[in-house]
Amino acid sequence: MTMKNPIPILEHRTDCIVYHAQAEVLNKDEAGWIGGNAPAYFDDKNKNNLIDQQQAIHIQPEGLTYFFYLSLLHPFNPEKMISIFIPKDYDEYVEHNIYPDCAIKVIEHPISLESSKDTFTHPSLIKHSISQGKVIGDLDSMESPFLIKVGGTPRLIQQEDYYTTELQQQSFSFLLQVDEEGYPETLLAEDGSYPFGFGALYVYAKIDKNEIMQPVAGFWQFS
Predict the structure, then answer these.
(1) Which of 17, 65, 73, 119 is a Cys-bridge partner for 150, taking CB atoms 3.0 to 4.6 Å apart?
(2) d(CA 177, CA 146)
(3) Residue 57 and residue 216: Cα distance in Å, rounded?
(4) Rounded Cα gap, residues 152 and 9, in angstroms
(5) Which pLDDT score, from 0 to 100, does residue 57 have?
(6) pTM higher than 0.85, yes or no?
(7) Residue 31: how many CB atoms within 10 A of its CB?
(8) What pLDDT shows up at residue 223?
(9) Bridge partners of residue 98, in order along the sequence
(10) What is the DSSP letter of 188?
């Protein structure tokens, strides 16, 4: 699903778009994938050199080894995708979990097919397709599991103001969250663990009229 006008979702916030993960390959009906190989766009990069120049100023710390997490077709730009990478070192991103010191990387890039290379493949995640998004009421989204929620208001695990203090000061607004409550049972490998401790990642962006700019990892929380 690509919406030409994000205003109802990102300004009024009474509705949102929710996505789910499915084990079967959805082909033309999929909105992206979680697990598996990174997009081919990243084939010329390696685990220690995953810097998108437009994003680099917002990404700290540098020099980490990264795994691919997921890619989603941009819900408001039909020519773009949003890909998320997480450090291999869990302790590193536990320590660096809030913007501007969040170690999770959120990179907007041109649409790209899945690579045949496993350079960034996460060993704990079995590839699943992400289904096309569905618009529902924001209140309804608080009562049912989802993998990704775009727009509306974030469903938080901890209600603490310090998570958003710096984001608000720099005029970032909530864009989407990835919630591990929405994982199918088949997504984790047999000996795998939840990358976010059965938690959620919250992505923010600068939103100006119909333009979505500078998506960043705002913070993540675990239960």
Answers:
(1) 17
(2) 10
(3) 10
(4) 6
(5) 32
(6) yes
(7) 22
(8) 84
(9) 219
(10) B
Q: Comparing C-alpha atoms, which of 145, 18, 120 is closest to residue 70?
A: 120
42, 115 Cβ separation under 8 angstroms: yes
Tell me which residue has tokens 């997490």. 69
Burial class (CB in 10 A: 0-12, 13-18, 19+), 192: middle
Distances (CA, A) of 132 to 37, 44, 76, 124: 20, 29, 13, 24
Q: For residue 204, give every residue at least 6 positions away whose Cβ sits within 8 Å of its Cβ, in sequence order, or none.
A: 99, 167, 172, 173, 174, 175, 215, 216, 218
Helix (H) or strand (E) holding 135: strand 134-137
Residue 29 clears pLDDT 70, i.e. is over it: yes
15: phi then psi, degrees, rounded to nearest 5: -120, 165
pLDDT digits (tens, 9 = 90+) for 59-112: 334 556 899 999 999 999 999 999 999 999 999 999 999 999 999 999 999 999
As given in the structure block, the two tokens for residue 83 are: 């890909």
